[in-house]
Structures are given as C-alpha cells and as structure tokens.
Amino acid sequence: MIIDNSLLKQLSDKAVKSVRKRTNYNFHKNDDDLLQRMLNGIEPNSYVQPHKHENPDKREAFIILKGQLLVILFNDDGSIKQSSILNREKGIFGIEIPPGRYHTIIALEPNTCVYEVKDGPYNPHNDKHFAPWAPSEDEHCTALTYMKKLIKQCSF
Question: How far apart are CA 152 and CA 130, in angstroms?
C-alpha cells in the first residue's frame, strides 16, 4: 500500500463528513494482528477522550504526515505531564506513548493525518481505559469546552 496525497485526501474528506470528525484507514488485516497499523484523519474539534492502554499494556506511536497534531500526556490526576505539537515543518515528526499513560490527541489544522502504530490485538472491551476526570465523547458541549481549555493550557 502506498501512502500518498491521494489517500490522505480521501481520508480527510471522509473525516470532514464524519460525525466524530475523524476516521481511520487500517493496514492490519484483522483485530488479532499483533501490530495494529493505521492512518488517522482527524479534524479540529474532534474530541478524543483521554485514555490509557494497560491490562493489557500497549505502546502507541503517532507519526505526522500532514497538518499539526497536539499530543498531551497526563498524570493520573489529570494534570498535564507533557505536551508536544507534531509538525513536519518544525521538525517534530512523531511520539511514542508508553503503556499506562493517559493521553489525548487534538488536530490543530484541517486535514491533519497521522500514521498510528499500536500493539495488538485489538479488543474493544479492554483496549482503552478512559480517564475518569475527563468528559466522555457523549458529553459533546462539555468535551469541546474541555478540549479548548487543554489547547489554551498547552499554548506554545
């Protein structure tokens, strides 16, 4: 599979039309694959509830292909431990997140696309452990307010 501008545009077009303002394109053949590989197209105002991958422990990495992505790592109490903006023009290309670390991602530009790699297999029942101190994706207005607060706290 070739990752080119045409594929990224298709992904971005699909993300814009999505209710969640994001979509993925999987390279792995099934959920049992031990290495989950995918493209994520994500638009501004797409809220990803902070979560961690543990029990089973899983590493996760993001590599920026287009746009800008704010990656925030949290302490267990919800305070920000670290934030980074993945941006090819600024020479910050990717980040690897260790197992058990709460994190979220926020697109800062339209048509943001990242290549994501995560340990598998994927099981929707135990893949993500959501942060109890963050709003859920179902709480749309509260989630957007929380996300804007995070962006302001991470202003560079």
Answer: 22
What are the tens digits of pLDDT across the range 63-109? 999 999 999 999 999 999 999 999 999 999 999 999 999 999 999 99
Within 13 Å of residue 112, how many CA atoms lie on the same side as its CB? 27
Dihedral, 86, 70, 100, 3 alpha carbons, nearest 10: -50
Q: Name the helix (H) or strand (E) containing 8.
A: helix 5-17
Q: In 18-133, which ranges are continuous DSSP H helix?
A: none
Residue 19 is encoded by which pair of tokens?
A: 């209710």
Calpha distance 99→130 (Å, rounded): 13
Q: Which residues contact 98 (CB under 8 A, 6 or more apart)?
A: 59
**Six-digit token pair at 147?**
């996300």
Nearest to 147 by CA among 48, 5, 28: 48
Distance separating alpha carbons of residues 21 and 154, to the nearest angstrom: 22
Rounded distance between C-alpha atoms, residue 143 and residue 65, angstroms: 26
Which structure tokens are listed for 145?
């307010």
| The amino acid at 102 | Y
